[in-house]
# Entry
Amino acid sequence: MTPDPAYLPSERSAARSAPPVERQPAAAQRDPIGRARSTERRRREQRFRERRRDLLADIALACVLAITALVIAPGLGVVALVSIPVALALIGSVIAERALRRRRRARQRSPLR
# Structure
């Protein structure tokens, strides 16, 4: 049976005298074009979030003003009975068009066709 080399005196002294090997991790290299693209994408997403927030605030204010006008002015209730369904139909058509457009894009991109 051979003895374990770690227990031999010559091996232990050689292991102690050798300097420890320090290894640096490889530096991650980022593509400057990729960095610019991701920065631009983040900036665009932030801008769209701000625009969406502003639009939501505008819609809320418009609803408050419309309700106030309906309560204060006589005869506007009759106008509201006609205009509210028309407005809802217009908004619904915009939403439906966007949904159809997204479905068409998804079908064009899908590799299963």
